[in-house]
Amino acid sequence: MTTTVIRNAEWVTAWDETAAQHHYRRHVDIAFTNDTITFVGRSYYGLADQVIEGRDRLVLPGLIDIHSHPEHEPLYRGVREELGVRNMHMTGLYERSQAFSAPDEEARAASAEFAYCELLLSGVTSLVDISPAWNGWIDLFAKSGLRGFLAPGFASARWRLENDFELKFEWDEARGREGLATALALIDRATRHPSGRLSGVVSPMQIENCTAGLLRDSRDAARERGIPFTVHIAQSVCEVQEIIRRHGKTPVQWAHEVGILGPGTILGHALFLDTHSWVRWWTRTDLALIAGSGSSVAHCPTPFARYGQVMENFGDYLRAGVNMGIGTDTTPHNLVEEMRKTAVLARIAAGDIETITSSDLLHAATIGGATALMREDLGRIAPGRKADLVLVDLTVPQMRPVRDPLRSFIFHAADRAVRDVFVDGRQVVAEGKVLMLDQLDAADRLASAQHRMLEAAPRRDYLGRTAE
Ligand SMILES: [Zn+2]
After folding, report:
1. Alpha-carbon distance 219 to 279, whole Å?
2. What pLDDT score does 440 carry?
3. Is residue 396 within 8 Å of 56, Cβ to Cβ?
């Protein structure tokens, strides 16, 4: 047994069980034994193996990122930020995924290690990693010290482009079935990992790339295991049009009919609902269907914002009763930047500053994520909960003056102020440095992996173009 005490923390966003919300507390001690918080309050008198000075620190619950693709996204740095297709309602998703992907296992390992470092340095302690199954994934994740929800992706079809205006599909249901079996085997192996920090999410990749049968069986497999289920849905106008063409319903309505909505279902993005100004479908039932089913939404503003697209809007989803979480779909893997963008874009979309507050943001990045993952033990600083904690340095210039430290953190300092991070009571970031991984070494390997990816692009692109 090892007990650590953070002594006299200047500010803490502690969990108020009765009010069911985070609230500021000043000058309190936080003690944790092994992986569990045992004390939050004035004057801890118990024994301690390690004492951490809490002066000049804001202590936050570890942030929960419910949507990411570390296996390839860092490979796109400098490649993808301005790549979109006007004839596809601005999205560059389809063109990109046909032309560029991780070229080999070494590239995947470099990309994932690099992303895990960015995530830890922005205060993420729990991560949903949606990637194709690759060798070494479980070991690297365990080594990172993060709490891992591995989500091996699979599908019945792949996107195919022959031009820049029509999205086509290559169906292969046997491949999808094999992918589901591989994913479940990997999830079961991760769950048995001795670290006890790993589990899984069943992840058929995209609603338009899966048969109803594969979606239902995936959902059942998740239910049997008591783990979440996730799928990309309503992430592009092309996808909405395709599902309406096939079924006469929006993607959310079709998902409801197939029976995959409900608690434990995380909808990747759910941005282009029937009410969205780029869709304007007549039904206007999508938001109520999501809310009524108890499904969660993983909101990742950055990739959409780069295409000129925004959710309309985050505040309305909250008020409709949807459980909202936040993710980092693309690089940079910086959850605090995603929180800031969530606020700014929601206010622009609503034309209303009151549509969302900084407490809504912290709630989404902690409790929203924990609820989506069906993990009441995460995302809150209270006795009996997991010791996943972030210590923010109040002395860095971007945090000062420290009038409302959460606002300083979200709107000004972000990852620059993250000093120390604990996951399961174990320190994984110290003095702003990742302890278990090597970001600079990963950056070197990432650079050569990107070179190999770009070399392969002309053979993959439908027009044989280079990245230039
Ligand atoms: Zn995604």
Report:
1. 28
2. 97
3. no
